[in-house]
Amino acid sequence: MGHDILSVLQGKTMDFSKGQRRIAQFIKESYDKAAFMTASKLGKAVGVSESTVVRFAVELGYDGYPSMQKAMQEMVVNRLTSVQRLEVAHDRIGSQDVVSMVLHADMEKLRQTGETLDRKEFAAAVDAILGAKRVYILGVRSAATLANFLGYYLNYMFRNVRIVTASGVSEMFEQIVGVGPEDVVVAFSFPRYSSSTAKGAQYCRSTGAKVIGVTDSRLSPLGTNCDHVLQTKSDMVSLVDSLVAPLSVVNALIVAVASKREQQLTKTFDELEHIWEVYHVYEKQVDEK
């Protein structure tokens, strides 16, 4: 229902009270801002009480205002331009302490991810990585950070990891050509969704490769092209894509894979520790006297 809220409003306007019509009009004209307003703030913006806003949400068939707000956010988050993101961030932050607001938002996304992440899908993703001939990791723009982080640690465990962070569609296809049924692809995509990642995942799946998507919804452009979806909550803070929860899921993947390859990793790190020591790769902390 959240994805069709504007058409619902269009069809029900005549049944609304005067105050509810003002709410509906505001949402239709400024849904990008309304989606991130509290019931109290939305009420003040249109000149009605908070209780009127709550009743309006129930009138539309939602359990309450939080449910309607969530539906609006899911509908608009991928449509926001950079300028709109700045405007929304200004409205959300207001006079709040920025550090507290951002930290609390990140903690909430971690909590939601812990509740929604399918453990069976996660276990299947780990098994797929362990059994792959090659592992391709796709992530562009801000999601390239996640791809590089996962690739950095998987490279300690395997000799067949390829990190693909090319944002252009043609360049991405040049790097994934040759992918096949014995391979696994781990792809990252969050709003605003990258078309190159979705197209790359679609191509890889068409070759028989198993595709693992780390994204915010099974219905996202990436999620619909995956064999396994690790549903992970992200957030938008001004121009910044908050990737705290996705990075935590990546950490969990690394730990789970590493625990299955403990013997091999022990040998690898024994050799690396010797190399690091001989070539002074790391600086040692000076002991206090």
Instruction: Indicate the radius of gyration in whole angstroms.
Output: 23 Å
Helices, by number, come to 14
**What would you call the shape?**
elongated
User: Strands across the major sheet, in which order?
Assistant: 2-1-3-4-5
The tally of beta strands, per DSSP, is: 7
Topology of this structure?
Layout: H1 5-12, H2 18-29, H3 31-34, H4 39-46, H5 50-59, H6 65-76, H7 82-93, H8 98-116, H9 119-130, E1 135-138, H10 144-157, E2 161-164, H11 169-176, E3 184-189, H12 195-206, E4 210-215, E5 228-231, E6 235-237, E7 240-242, H13 244-260, H14 262-278
Parallel strand pairs: 1-2, 1-3, 3-4, 4-5
Antiparallel strand pairs: 6-7
Helix pairs in contact: 2-4, 4-5, 9-13, 10-13, 11-12
